[in-house]
Design a protein that fits this description.
Helix content: 10-25%
Low-confidence stretches: 1-27, 31-41, 494-509
Distance between the termini: 5 Å
Number of domains: 2
CATH topology of the largest domain: Purple Acid Phosphatase, chain A, domain 2
Structural class: mainly beta
Largest sheet: 9 strands, mixed
CATH architecture of the largest domain: 4-Layer Sandwich
CATH superfamily of the largest domain: Metallo-dependent phosphatases
Radius of gyration: 23 Å
Number of strands: 29
Strand content: 35-45%
CATH class of the largest domain: Alpha Beta
Length: 509
Amino acid sequence: MPAARAVLTWGLMALPVALAEPAPSSTFASTLAPSRTEAQAPAPKTPRFVFVGDVLLARGVIRERNDRGISPWRDWTPFLQGADWVMGNLEGAVGPASECSPRPGPCFAIPDSLIDDLRNAGFTALSMANNHAFDLGPAGFSRTRAAVRARGMLPVGFEDSPLFRVVGGHAIAFVAMTLIPGKDGRGQTLPGLAEARKLRFARAFAERVIVFMHWGGELRDWPGEDQIAGARWLAQRGADLVLGAHPHLVQADTCVAGIPVFYSLGNHLFDQKYPETRRGQVADCRLEAAGFVCRSHRTDAEADGFFPRPPDARGAESAASLLHCSDSALVRPHPPAIVESIWRNDTAYLVWSQPGAGGRPIRWFTRGSELLCASPFRLSGDSGEYLFALEWHYSSLDRETAPRPYVYRLGSAGPVAKWRGSGLAWPLLDATPLPSEPGALCALHRGDSFLVPDSTVRTTRVAAYRWNGFGFSLAADGALEKACRAELGISPAGGQGFPAGRIDSPHSP
């Protein structure tokens, strides 16, 4: 499938950004924008987010849609009116059934025209991190993303997570994952190396992080131990709200480590005929000062079909329960920038802008390298602004395509590479600055070496580094290494919280 690549936009306001062609001579390009005043920035409000579960636009749903000639959401306008964000889990891929993968299992082929119903209903985004996204192969996956974007909606998969958006004046990052492999054979793991990196990237540039999970056992109305442990891990790594799908039954919503977790929203629109699978749940959440406060609405299908009835059409049963989990300890300051995702020609760009001299914002764009992660970086005794980035590059030094660390200085001309390295002392799996220690870098290395490389090795080592003015030097500091283990999510005893072998590119097919 086509690579989804990153381009960051730092900004203090949520205004449309025209994406200029990046300069080919550097990893980042910059451009000056007309000055704006603080008065032009939209005032933050209390945005409303609506989430539903599994959405099927195939099989019996197609037949009902054709027979009745009306949208499944024709009665949902009053309920969805005023929502700033509406998101569900789209099961299947756009294209003809003749392209179904030969691999065993149901295949959900979606007519392109039915994507219009989602747009007209008011959907903002659709999770494509599920076990049916590749039912029609890589071409079908790409076609579905394009069809969703063509209608002005946003497809959210693991490949292009985190998706950054300004909602109601607030910087929000969306991450989508599936623990259930699809017909492409791929899926995510919790805990996981790439998964932890996505969350770290998200929380570095967002006020709040929303995670849409595809997990759990089918037709199980209670969360499994893997979901419970996974929810706690997600909260520990920075998630502020977790939504789940896949079981096709509603599972309990609850508070986990101070955040709302909806283990399974059940079926929103599906053609399964078991009584329990005809019911769904809507998470109706508002972002308040201390976090998300959610109302949980139960829905069910119409008696003579599969179309869902909106909560206000269910009479006395529509009373919503309130889920208020906000923990003051989770309150994070406003990020150093508001980041937004922009699409161009099947490529996801993250665009950022930084206030420059005289109030003239400087906008930066990555050239086309795969940006795995980025975060602000402080140097001891240096008041300048820096960015640490982990990028996916080939290097002739070790003849591998692997994560490479970069340090950029941020100035009036935009970001300038101050240091770029192949893998520090050993082949690299992951790296991040230590926020509590200016100039400190934490790295997770493979257990092999550059002299005797072996990319299949499953052992790892943690190392702490300090900035020496022109690069990083190993730090023989037990306390610093201990802090790095905590930052990377690795136990002090030497074990690790995720498989060491997950070093594949997050954008590879």
